[in-house]
Structure formats: structure tokens, C-alpha cells
Specification:
188 residues, mainly alpha, globular
Length: 188
Amino acid sequence: MEHAAYPTLSRINRMLSRMLEWITISLMVLLTLIVTMAVFARLMGQSFSWYDEVAAIMLAWITYYGSALAALHRRHIGFDSVLLAIPQKIQVVVLLLGEAIVLLFFFLMARAGFQVLDVLAGDTLVSLTWVPIQFTQSIIPIGAILFMLCQTLSLPGFLKLTAAGISLEHAEIEEEVETELEKNKDHV
């Protein structure tokens, strides 16, 4: 999340956003190519033994990287209307408590992810025996750490907006309504 009051932080957010966008889009394109190739191969009677397993793993990777990207832009489900309805004196306390709970959850997820990697040491995929499961499951701690980083990087801007009484939900909805009204003004 960018904010004019934090130019350096905004620059870091833009760079991280671009990186996460490229990773997510690349994974989506690669997944599309793999599934398309598998469909054509199946139509020709030559089914790939590995594509189901690889596609499921890639979908999980897309989910984790996309989730971190959404956290960076504060696009996960939120209740800023409820937050803004709370008396202003305790808004920041409630916001920080919520952030602490989210960060704790993802910290525990990262920790559990590292434990999972230890347990899976030496195992490989069933269909591609040269691919270690540790590699495929490394997205669990990586995704959790990225989410914590993105959530933390977007916090100062979100705090500033909340303190100013600005709701991200309402701003987005109002922008969409204005866009639709502008598009349809000739139809009325």
C-alpha cells in the first residue's frame, strides 16, 4: 500500500508488488501451458503422468504468492467500516491488535512450515522422483514470511488512512460506482 507520507516505503512496496505480480503471473501462465499441453496430450492418447501433481502444487504456489500480493495492497477481506465505527481513541489499539493476531498466525504457520520441511526430508514427488517434496512444500514458510512482510510494509499507510477516517472498502466501491456512472451516463 502506497502513501505519500512514506516515499521510501512506497518505493519498496512498488518493487515488491512488481516482483510478486511477475511471480504470480508467470506461475499462472506456466500452469495454463502445462494444463493445455496435458489436455492435447490426452486427446492424442498420450497422457502425462505428472501433470496432476505439478498442477496442484503450482496452484498452491499461485495462492501463496497472490495472497502476499493482496496483503501488500490490503485487498484481503477486511472490516474497516467496523473499525471506523469504533471510538477514535481505541481505533489504533484495535487495529494493532488485529495486526498482531494476523502476524502471529502467519509466524506460527511459517514455523510449522519449516517443521514440515524437516519431516519431508528425503521424500520426492510420486510422478517426478527427481523433484524433492521439500522444494514443492517450501512455499508454506516462504508464503507465510512474505505475507508477514507485506502486511507489515502496508501497515503504516493503512494506519494513516484509518486515523484520517478513510475506509479502503468505501473508497474502492465509490471509485467503481463513479466509473460505472461515467460509462453509462449516455444511456440514461
